[in-house]
Write a structure and sequence with these properties.
Shape: elongated
Strand content: 15-25%
CATH architecture of the largest domain: 3-Layer(aba) Sandwich
CATH superfamily of the largest domain: Alpha/Beta hydrolase fold, catalytic domain
CATH topology of the largest domain: Rossmann fold
Number of domains: 2
CATH class of the largest domain: Alpha Beta
Radius of gyration: 23 Å
Structural class: alpha/beta
Largest sheet: 8 strands, mixed
Oligomer: single chain
Number of helices: 15
Length: about 425
């Protein structure tokens, strides 16, 4: 089979390489670290792709930072989610089954929670919540990747950890080494690993409402079961074979993808989505209003409102409500919400004002123009704990923005009025 031509979708100015092959129900495939053109060059992976394209319309793409796509800095799960939207738009696909592997499975999970109207079904192969290693081990692994990635001996050891098939076939091993070298530079691979290790999707799993299948191998049974238990009505399928590589002889995983994608059922669009909520208010506004006088205060407040709305437009936020000197806003990604909150704080400071902001990512019910549910209450309570000039976030927000370059100061556990449990909160720190 000839290698399908590569096209490019645009995601916020970033070029995302994708290929579109076959007819049938659309399946968007976000592979793990690779270059998509080389997946068609060797029987090991070609058989898998041909099995899919025989029965579905396969849209396979390189997420930003890998393979044939642009490689900007500051890559997060949120930006990977943007890439899926861009590829759907470029391929003129309204809804599709999403299939992701490992880190890309987590990006697909985030997408399904945030944009359920565009996700027909969700198939996650070997997803993970957190990486089971302490901070020293994580740091050592990232350093090792930066120093050793691309070196033949190290890459061959890495390949065998992924699948024992590479040890048995020198040609396959050589293909793997060259593909991985082309997929990412040593620095890029290290940052990719950092994002993997610092991301935690535990809190978003219960918000997935589209039909979901968790596929795994015996080596990852415990993690897969834990994830499936957290996703409402998720199915669990153990795929025969060894290692972490989705490509195995016989293609049982490809058969599962076709079966799920071609399942005859009415599409379900949930009435809830995952969203990041931002609450802001001015501190000491009453004192300042009294000192300035009504007319000057109204002018200054109008300027502040204009600043907030300018930053909302810049970071794709939606103004849900405003009352007095405070705003309630919604975002489809936590990293953008943090950047917007920081920009609002800076703009207020330039006008001699102090703003505080509280952010939380959670499931919101869509029963009208305003999001509703416990996530709204949590976000408002986080704001109540913030200090003047501070952007305070819940642990869920922090766990979803790995790779964004943001740093956080642990503010400890707090009781949020009217909200069950204790909540760990973090203040966003400026990084020079």
């Amino acid at each position: 089979m000839d290698i399908p031509d590569v096209r490019y979708a645009r995601s916020g100015g970033v070029a995302i390489a994708y290929q579109c092959v076959g007819d049938g129900p659309p399946v968007v495939y976000a592979p793990h670290l690779c270059t998509i053109d080389r997946l068609w060059q060797i029987p090991h992976t070609l058989e898998f792709l041909e099995r899919l394209t025989h029965d579905v319309r396969l849209i396979v793409f390189n997420p930003r930072g890998t393979g044939l796509s642009d490689r900007p800095r500051g890559i997060t799960l949120e930006s990977r989610m943007d890439d899926i939207n861009a590829v759907l738009d470029a391929s003129r696909t309204d809804r599709a089954t999403l299939f992701g592997v490992s880190e890309s499975a987590n990006a697909c999970a985030l997408f399904a929670s945030t944009f359920p109207e565009r996700c027909e079904r969700l198939i996650l192969f070997m997803p993970y919540t957190t990486v089971g290693a302490d901070e020293e081990e994580k740091t050592a692994w990232i350093r090792e990747m930066r120093q050793q990635w691309g070196e033949r001996e190290w890459m061959e050891e890495f390949a065998v950890k992924i699948s024992p098939l590479y040890r048995q076939d020198p040609e396959l091993m050589d293909w793997f080494v060259w593909m991985q070298r082309a997929a990412a530079s040593p620095g890029g691979a290290a940052e990719f690993a950092r994002m993997q290790m610092e991301t935690d999707i535990t809190d978003l799993l219960p918000t997935i409402r589209v039909p979901t299948v968790i596929a795994h191998r015996a080596i990852d049974r415990q993690m897969a079961h834990g994830i499936a238990e957290r996703i409402p009505d998720a199915s669990l399928v153990e795929i025969p074979g060894e290692g972490y590589d989705p490509y195995q002889r016989g293609n049982p995983l490809a058969d599962l993808i076709v079966q799920v994608a071609r399942k005859d059922s009415e599409p379900v669009v949930p009435d809830s989505v995952l969203a990041t909520l931002m609450f802001t208010d001015l501190t000491d506004s009453t004192v300042m209003a009294a000192s300035l006088g009504d007319h000057a205060w109204r002018d200054l407040l109008a300027q502040h409102h204009a600043d907030v709305r300018r930053e909302l437009a810049r970071f794709r936020g939606i103004e849900v409500d405003s009352a007095g000197d405070g705003f309630f806003c919604r975002f489809d990604g936590p990293a953008r919400a943090i950047e917007c909150a920081m920009a609002i704080v800076d703009a207020a400071g330039a006008r001699g004002l102090e703003v505080r902001a509280g952010l939380h990512t959670g499931e919101c019910e869509l029963m009208g123009p305003k999001p509703a549910g416990i996530a709204v209450h949590i976000g408002a309570r986080v704001l109540g704990k913030a200090k003047p000039g501070e952007v305070l976030v819940s642990r869920t927000v922090k766990d979803l923005v790995a790779g964004s370059g943001n740093a956080f100061d642990d503010r400890g556990e707090h009781t949020l009025k009217g909200v069950p449990d204790r909540w760990t909160l973090y203040a966003v720190q400026r990084v020079s």
